[in-house]
Amino acid sequence: MSMGDLIGIHPTELKFPFELRKQSSCSVQLANKTEKYIAFKVKTTNPKKYCVRPSSGIVLPGSTCNVTVTMQAQKEAPPEQCKDKFLIQSVVAPDGVTFKDITPEMFNREGGQVVEEFKLRVIYIPANPPSPVPEGSEEGTPPRASVHENGNQNSSFEDVSRSLEETKEKSSEAWSAISKLTDEKSSALQQKQRLHQELELMRKEISNSRAGGFSLSFVLLVGFLGVLIGYLVKRD
Question: What pTM did the predictor assign?
Answer without folding.
Answer: 0.54
